[in-house]
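Weekly modeling sync, notes
Attendees: AB, CL, MP (scribe)

Item 1: holo prediction request
CL wants a bound-state model with iron/sulfur cluster before deciding which constructs to order. AB pointed out that an apo prediction alone won't tell us much about the pocket. Agreed to run with the ligand included and paste results into these notes for async review.

Input as submitted:
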Amino acid sequence: MNLSIEIDSGSGFCNGVVRAVRKAESYLDEHRRLYSLGAMVHNAQEIERLAAKGLQTIDIDEMASIRGEVVLVRAHGEPPSTYDLARRNGITVIDCTCPVVLQLQKKVAAAYGKVHSQGGTLVIFGKKGHAEVNGLVGHTEGNAVVVESIAELDGIDFSKPVALFSQTTKDTEEYAALTEACRQRSAQSGGEFESYDTICRQVAGRHAALARFASSHDVILFVSGRESSNGNVLYKLCHKHNPRTYWVENNQVPASLFRDGDSVGICGATSTPRWQLEELYLHLQAEIINKQ
Ligand code: SF4
């Protein structure tokens, strides 16, 4: 079968994840063992690769039971309680919190101090239970309200000050719609409202480029772990611009997806390493182009 294949030049790990993986690898090269609090990236194959080098993923309960070890905090960041636990247990933290998330945590803590003292609410537009969101909530003494949709604004008192923040990987259009809904409710109730657009520019900037990439190919193969929040957002975006977009894990691509002469675009989430895109490229060449 004749296919032309292109890998999206903007796909691959974001800076925050590249930095965290590099730090982990350089530590493992020397020490051969490192704990990671939570999965370093939402990508099973990359986790397996790092596990083979000695990275062991643990949860917070497991961290509570270890003493004097070295634990990596991933790019998503952690609440202050995690650092307290590390201090109590004599654990050395390799802090790989992305600098962008670190700034966001500081902003959230400062805004929380202000709205809370006036009886108001700090709202985070994010995925409930996501590590970055949990970390942010931890910077508000657990009091931030996490919303995933406009409908969830119903329980919030807009007659008091409301500060709205976003998880770094949320969609900019959805955030704009949520901001507008908050603004209207606040105006109707006579409260104060402030919106802090804290979507990571590296992610937001990719949306327009990825939309162009998706619409300029016949077929899009989107590579990502299913549990990646950013992966879900970017997959939907590609699908909107190209209905022949397929989610790919472990190079599982049936030849029936393609028509002779198709141009195929390969892209992925910010948690998808570049090597997986290149591996898929080689797989298509060997198993579809050369065999069919
Ligand atoms: S998406 Fe942006 S904020 Fe999140 S880890 Fe990557 S670079 Fe940092």
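Recorded for review: The pocket of iron/sulfur cluster is lined by residues 14-17, 75, 98, 100-101, 168-169, 200, 202-203, 270 (CB under 6 Å).
Action items: CL to compare against the apo run; MP to circulate these notes.
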